[in-house]
Amino acid sequence: MTILDGKATAAALKKEIAQAVQHIKDNGGKTPHLAAILVGNDGASETYVNSKERDCREVGMNSTVIRMSAAISADELLQKVDEINRNDDIDGLIVQLPLPRHINEQQIIEAIAPAKDVDGFHPLNVGRMVTGLPSYVSATPDGIVELLAHYNIETAGKHCVVIGRSNIVGKPIANLLALKATPGDCTVTLCHSRTRDLKSLCLQADIIIAALGKPEFLTADMVREGAVVIDVGITRIPTGTENKFRLVGDVKFDEVSLKCRYITPVPGGVGPMTRVSLLKNTLKAAKKEIFG
Ligand code: NAP
Fold first, then answer.
1. Alpha-carbon distances, residue 9 vs 22, 149, 260 (angstroms)
2. Is the CB of 274 inside a 6 Å radius of any atom of ligand 1?
3. The whole model's pTM is what?
């Protein structure tokens, strides 16, 4: 069994991104700049945005965090998005989700200029990704594909079972792995809460991607010998000590790891790859690689 070390892989990719940023600067180019809008003061969102800011700093990119009150109206938020869309100094824009309930997330996502949509959530980018055109691919599926590529894991002709059909993980990774590409060329089964007999589908899988958000859901009896298991899940479980928690994935690592050929740990697997993919997209945006 080999552990797919997302932390080390992401660190190597980050180095390459930092070099590319330095190259742009050395040639008199503008420093790549990521803007993040954070609405309200949700603790997890705050942590995610802070780490994105730190990542940008580490690779020499600029970052701006725009903090807005949870009481903001949809119109005010749309106005801010529009302002950033028109700001030539900002290459990429993310709006940290979830948004307060009174704001329609899809309306906000669709207001982001596709050329700055480094989260890859805009329907134009999603459509381009599904048709195999250059696009911003959302960070988590992109990170998974990078990790498979980094470890030269054969995907062509393999049966991949994806558990979870969210717009940010399940659906895009299922589509990416079904593309005529490398990694790709998989036969994909996309599962969800209404899927019947998930266990027997998992037992037919060469590759399982668990992205359902249920701690330790995937157990050894659901995995066949030699499978590749990618654990996307992150659930924060309180440790009982004040304000402390541990991160638990969707895979029962101790028992599943004994059966599979490759497995990602939590933490240190898909998470760091997700973070580096956002930097990759921001670099692409700065270089105008997708939309010219
Ligand atoms: P989500 O939007 O809550 O979607 C969960 C999906 O799992 C849904 O499609 C749901 O089916 C399906 N599901 C729930 N229970 C199921 C069951 N018993 N059997 C089969 N399918 C089931 O979740 P998400 O945003 O994709 O996130 C999934 C997990 O990944 C979470 O733990 C999240 O924290 C984590 N995550 C990690 C990263 C990272 O960087 N590592 C990034 C994003 C998300 P229905 O559609 O039928 O409801």
1. 20, 11, 20
2. yes
3. 0.97
Task: Write out the H or E segment, with its range, that includes residue 103.
Answer: none
Report pLDDT digits (tens) over 149-185.
999 999 999 999 999 999 999 999 999 999 999 999 9
Is 194's C-beta closer than 6 angstroms to any atom of ligand 1? yes
Q: Where are the domains of the chain?
A: 27-113, 139-271
Probe target for ligand 1 pocket from 193, 216, 217, 235, with the most ligand atoms within 8 Å of CB: 193
For residue 96, indicate whether it is catalytic.
yes
Q: How far apart are CA 129 and CA 115, in angstroms?
A: 14
Q: Whole-angstrom Cα distance, residue 53 to residue 152?
A: 31
Distance 15 CA to ligand 1 centre (A): 30
- The reply to whether 52 belongs to the active site is yes
CB 228 within 8 A of CB 155: no
Is residue 22 annotated as part of the catalytic site, yes or no?
A: no
pLDDT at 179: 98
Let me know: does 290 contact 115? Beta carbons within 8 Å: yes
- Output the CATH code of domain 27-113: 3.40.50.10860
* The domain made up of 139-271 is a member of CATH 3.30.70.100: no
Residues 6+ apart with CB under 8 A from 133: none
123's tokens: 């329907």
Q: How far apart are CA 285 and CA 92, in angstroms?
A: 6
Q: Does ligand 1 have an atom closer than 6 angstroms to the CB of 189?
A: no
| Active-site option among 5, 91, 117, 119 | 119
CB of 196 sitting under 6 A from ligand 1:
no
Nearest-angstrom CA–CA distance, 14 and 156: 27
